């Protein structure tokens, strides 16, 4: 770790020997009295914030994975760390002890998407809020004294490539195949459960015939999939299309037949089975249905 003095900033000290692998995060306490560093060797080091002199290592053995992020509380007495071991921990800087710890994901189960990649202790607040981000792109809202996240903000990590509306729910799909269901009134999303598309989501179409309805999606993994809108989960097995899907529609007047536009035809499905096909002399790029008409 290189320590600079300024401004203008000039090289002062090169610190070696504290960490023996990559250093992933450093942070000065708000009062400038202390400096902390964390890294892939799972170590946490504290330094004098004025001189850069190493003071002590704390928390040996607490984190069992790389420590990716660190952030101080506004009182300069505590800081919070985020780790690949799926935990976020609050530390007392003076005693070097953990004040509170959260573990994300199912208890006892190793989950790579729940690795905690970064964390911030927002200043200007008095409610003890800490926000961490995991490898799956979710923002975890953590509050001192609460054992579980008080809120999890989910969304997409890749370009959104398709959208559809069903009642008060907005459905979106992205380039890597993730499908999210958004509550329009609150603006919050849940990732749709079950086996999603493996890549680019190309379209959505809704069908209200069953309970709260069903959503159909198509993707460039050449599949047609069905979503239970009320449970927000994929249901049944995927249906393989004969070409790359460009769009999807539901012809309600025909008993909820699902129409899929591919690169060379319009394919017709019902109850997961193909029941018809219209070959085209052109390459369709979109399909829509209204009553007994299809465009």
UniProtKB/TrEMBL annotation:
Return the InterPro entries for the record: WD40/YVTN_repeat-like_dom_sf, WD40_repeat_dom_sf, WD40_rpt
Listed transmembrane segments: none
Annotated WD repeat ranges: 16-57, 60-101, 153-192
Q: Where is the signal peptide?
A: none
Query: Which keywords label this protein?
Result: Repeat, WD repeat
Pfam family, any one: WD40
Gene3D superfamilies xrefs: YVTN repeat-like/Quinoprotein amine dehydrogenase
Name recorded for this polypeptide = WD40 repeat-like protein
Q: Which gene name belongs to this protein?
A: AIP1_1
